[in-house]
Amino acid sequence: MAEVELPDPHELAEKRDQAFSRRVALLTAVYAVVLAIAGLGGKYAMKEMLLAQQQSSDQWAFYQAKVVREHLNRANKILVETQLAEPTGVRGAERTKLETLAKRFGDEEQRMVADKKDIEKEAKTLEAERDRHRNRDPYFDFAEVFLQIAIVTASVSILSTSRPMFWFSLGLAVLGALLTANGFLQLLALPFLHHGAPH
Asked: Whole-angstrom Cα distance, residue 138 to residue 182?
């Protein structure tokens, strides 16, 4: 009868540990890819938030310039109308010239009022865009934290061949991946991650 050689239990344990380590190392690489995507999403959200903030500030400055011009035209119109209402009165061509000037100042004042409405609408749209990007950013920030911790705990699980540590790292990585996806898609609004009330 042929002898059956039984495998050495130490060799089996070593092969099992090597296979575990390889799988965890491969999964850790996936964690790193998701971490890179989260970092990119966070940078993009921050860049877009700052751009929208700058553009809305520019619109509000433009709005203020229109307000100043509106008031100047109103003041000039009142001044000319006051001259026209003088008891000594302005007559002839001079009166026609002042009436035309008063009308021009009045028309300019009304144009500034109309322009302000459009500018205000654009500024508020840009503020809403800024707020949307600002609310996306914390998801990426927290995702990066969870993914970095997942990478560290996965490394520890490889060194210690600790399966519970691996499962902990996987849980953190899944949470990080979900937060990353939500940063891009905004499917859920977690109140503790938002600045102020949603718009």
From this structure: 10
Predicted confidence (pLDDT) per residue in 128-179, tens digit? 999 999 999 999 999 999 999 999 999 999 999 899 999 999 999 999 999 9
- Tokens 């921050």: give the residue: 46
Q: Which residues contact 91 (CB under 8 A, 6 or more apart)?
A: none
For residue 71, CA distances in Å to 98, 103, 111 come to: 19, 15, 12
Residue for token pair 């999964």: 27
Least Cα distance to 193 among 145, 123, 125 occurs for 145
Residue recorded with tokens 């939500």: 182
Q: Is 56 helix (H, G, I), strand (E, B) or coil?
A: helix
User: Position 115: which residue type?
Assistant: D
**Distance in angstroms between the alpha carbons of the first and the last residue of the chain:** 82
Report in angstroms the alpha-carbon separations of 170 from 23, 149, 176: 12, 10, 10
Q: In the block, which residue shows the tokens 């519970």?
A: 164
Compute the distance between CA of residue 108 and CA of residue 128 in angstroms, rounded to an integer.
30
20: its two tokens: 């575990």
pTM assigned to the model: 0.75
